[in-house]
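Usage

Read records sequentially. Each one opens with the input sequence:
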Amino acid sequence: MKKVLVVDDDKELCALMKKCIEQEGLSAIVAHEGMAGLRLLENNKDECSLVILDVMMPGLDGFHVLQMIRETSNVPVLMLTAKSDEDDKVSGLRLGA
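and closes with the structure output:
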């Protein structure tokens, strides 16, 4: 079964996204910080078909996580953010989201 990796520090939002993803017949795996997300992706690289990635996380932010993902993978990445700044949107797209 294909998996969706959700990386976000908001645990309630992750639980909601996981529930919605599973209702669509997919499997969801969740990490609450960037390095944990990278480890999960590495351990599930052949099964992950999508990464949903929060931009604003403590420690390693979403832009750095995306940059590290792109060093080894072409998995589609959706950036999840409350930011509305156009520069942030452009940065995410330039990094490969």
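Summary fields computed downstream for this record:
- The longest helix spans residues 11-23.
- Helices lie at 11-23, 34-43, 62-70, 86-95.
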